[in-house]
Write a structure and sequence with these properties.
The chain is about 45% helix and about 15% strand. The chain starts with a helix and ends with a helix. The longest helix has 18 residues, at about 1-20. It has helices at about 1-20, 40-55, 70-80, 95-105, 130-145, 160-175, 190-205, 220-230, 245-255, 265-280, 315-325, and strands spanning about 30, 60, 85-90, 110-115, 125-130, 150-155, 180-185, 215, 240, 260, 300-305, 310. The chain has about 325 residues and is α/β, with parallel strands linked by helices. The protein is built from 11 helices and 12 strands. The protein folds into 2 domains: about 25-130 and about 265-305, 3-Layer(aba) Sandwich (Rossmann fold), CATH 3.40.50; about 130-260, Rossmann fold. Helix 2 packs parallel to helix 10 (about 265-280), helix 3 (about 70-80) runs parallel beside helix 4 and helix 5 (about 130-145) packs across helix 6 (about 160-175). Strands 2-1-3-4-5-11 form a 6-stranded parallel beta sheet, sandwiched between helices. A 6-stranded mixed beta sheet has the order 7-6-8-9-10-12, sandwiched between helices.
């Protein structure tokens, strides 16, 4: 009889743990992005909202409507003042955001970085793509497309750690193809018009310097480069893009973009909110502890959400899966 009673109590406790039964009441979690208007971050917010619905908590999405590190810092400072149960943030510029991230931790607010990290800050850990591996995948595909030889222009934002890791991956992948040269590294500064205008200039100088391929390490440049090439009827150039903006996918279907490296922003934010909720209820005694070097830490140092190559062979399947999930 005692055994049955104990089993019943254990089952009842498990049921209460699963349903939450009021423990989430009134909790608010905030996702802060570096450009809330682009499809990438709208997908992330969808994952954030989906997790919030399961947990029955409030989800807040904030950040600048264009690439603006200072504006993102202001959004984080506003969030800290409201004392949410936890914060997810993609870091546009670690130097600009470091102090505010540390302020959140000092205020006792669990903060996790997603997509782009600030490793020298006191953030708890990072959730996102293994960006070096994403760069390796892109570099291998680039070498395949160029058949081992060609001049390449790269569009990036050097202030972002994640993009630098992707570039490092590309460079390492191309070590075995010494006749492929990265001849230009262009800082787009979060402005897609720079990618459009620079590509136009490259084409105007084509007789002096022929660019065989364009590598885009962030989401906005790929469709801009593709637009310039498409509108000018330019064939035989390779574009390796980043992420799955709808226009990027349409250019893959059209054959203008060879491939893009897809990430999982929905997964990053979905998993991120679940982990923030766990941290909030775990109530760590010291958020500032050096968890990365603690062999018995209750939290990870890095959660890899994965990446993949999307090209003409699988773009239709990718779009179908997206539609089934989002209805769009």
């Amino acid at each position: 009889m005692k055994t049955r009673s104990a089993a019943f109590l254990l089952l009842l406790a498990s049921a209460f743990a699963l349903c939450g039964c009021g423990e989430h009441s009134g909790e608010t979690y905030t996702l802060i992005a570096n450009n809330i208007k682009i499809p990438y971050w709208q997908s992330a917010n969808a994952g954030f909202v989906h997790a919030a619905g399961q947990l029955q908590v409030t989800a807040v999405f904030d950040g600048p409507a264009r690439y603006d590190p200072a504006g993102e810092r202001d959004a984080l400072d506003r969030a800290i003042q409201k004392k949410p149960a936890g914060i997810l943030i993609s870091v546009a510029d670690p130097d600009v955001l470091k102090d505010s991230i540390n302020n959140a931790i000092a205020a006792g607010i669990p903060l996790i970085t997603v997509d782009s990290d600030a490793p020298s800050s006191k953030r708890l850990f990072f959730i996102g793509t293994n960006n070096y591996q994403a760069g390796l995948s892109g570099g291998k595909r680039l070498a395949q497309e160029l058949k081992g030889k060609g001049s390449v222009a790269v569009f990036t934002m050097p202030s972002q750690t994640n993009l630098n890791e992707r570039l490092r991956g590309y460079k390492d992948a191309l070590e075995s193809s010494p006749q492929i040269k990265l001849v230009h590294i262009v800082d787009v500064k979060g402005d897609p018009r720079i990618a459009f205008d620079t590509t136009t200039q490259f084409l105007a100088n084509d007789k002096k310097e022929h660019i065989d391929a364009f590598v885009c390490l962030e989401a906005l440049s790929g469709k801009e480069v593709a637009t310039v090439l498409d509108e000018n009827g330019i064939k035989g150039r390779t574009i390796i893009a980043m992420d799955t903006d709808p226009d990027t996918l349409r250019f893959i279907q059209k054959g203008v973009i060879a491939a893009t490296i897809s990430q999982k922003p929905f997964t990053m934010a979905f998993v991120g909110l679940k982990m923030l909720d766990s941290l909030h209820h775990q109530n760590l005694a010291n958020l500032s502890a050096d968890w990365a070097h603690d062999n018995f830490a209750p939290i990870p140092a890095f959660v890899d959400t994965g990446s993949d190559v999307v090209d003409k062979t699988n773009v239709d399947a990718f779009l179908s899966a997206t539609k089934s999930l989002t209805g769009e």
